[in-house]
Amino acid sequence: MGKDEVFKEEIEKASDFKFGENVAKVFDDMVNRSVPFYGEIQRMMAELAADHAREGADVYDLGCSTGTTIIGMDTMVNQNIRFIGMDDSQEMLDKCKSKLMELGFSRDYELRCVDLNKGVKITNAGVVVLCLTLQFVRPIHREHLLKNIYDGLNSGGVLILVEKILAEDSLFNRDFIDYYYNYKRRNNYSEMEISQKREALENVLVPYKLSENITLLRDCGFAHCEVFFKWYNFAGLIATKK
Q1: Domains in the chain, number
Q2: With 0-12 CB in 10 A as exposed, 13-18 as middle and 19+ as buried, what is 29?
């Protein structure tokens, strides 16, 4: 695993964050040091997916990045179920494919380069995962994407959604952001790295409140929406299609 030093050196003007080759090389280190309880979130998603996946229906990972979620689900989900990973970064998909090959991944799977802002064609899905992905879809396109997912899920299928979120109250939002940056400091990110990444993500990662995400899911038809993980400004949700 390469060490994340993408923002270690001073940048005169940070450009918008992109999941290109430089990020793909160090993404696993980046996300492990930037997302609280990332390993436990992955375990929980695999557990949830295993309980809801059904033979004859596919499992989709939208924004599959380097394949960590696919690899985690593979340990728990029935081996007869096909996985489909999608990402808009070919560099991330290339890294994903190389990791799967190194592991001798034997499950039937596909990797597709797809821009989720343009919608997605999903069919015969038992489980769809959006792990830290919806937050990178432009707000104007999120409802359309979620409706695509809902339409493509079989009855009884589930969406597993993990997002960085805003607090419901602005006072707590400031506190939670401070606690989050303290977390990154404990993982050896410098003040410069924290500041420069925040600037690069400003126009790219647009979080919603937890209540706004739940409302969006319900408006798209999902039922039985439940929070399965919460840490300050991160949350995991599971929602069912009747």
Answers
A1: 1
A2: middle
Number of CB atoms found within 10 A of residue 208's CB: 18
Q: What is the pLDDT of residues 17-62, one digit of tens each?
A: 888 888 888 899 999 999 999 999 999 999 999 999 999 999 999 9
In a domain, 5, yes or no: no
199, burial (CB in 10 Å: exposed 0-12, middle 13-18, buried 19+)? middle
Domain that holds residue 212: 21-240
Q: Per-residue pLDDT tens for 70-105?
A: 999 999 999 999 999 999 999 999 999 999 999 999
**Residue 64 DSSP class:** -
Instruction: Tell how strand 223-231 and strand 234-240 pair up.
Output: antiparallel
Q: What CATH code is carried by the domain that includes residue 51? A: 3.40.50.150
Which residue in this structure is represented by tokens 């985690």?
A: 72
Q: b/e for 36-63, b at 16 or more Cβ within 10 A?
A: bebeebbebbbebbbebbeeebbbbbbb
Task: Give, for 230, the enclosing helix (H) or strand (E).
Answer: strand 223-231
Q: How are beta strands 153-166 and 125-131 bridged, if at all?
A: parallel
pTM of the full predicted structure? 0.95
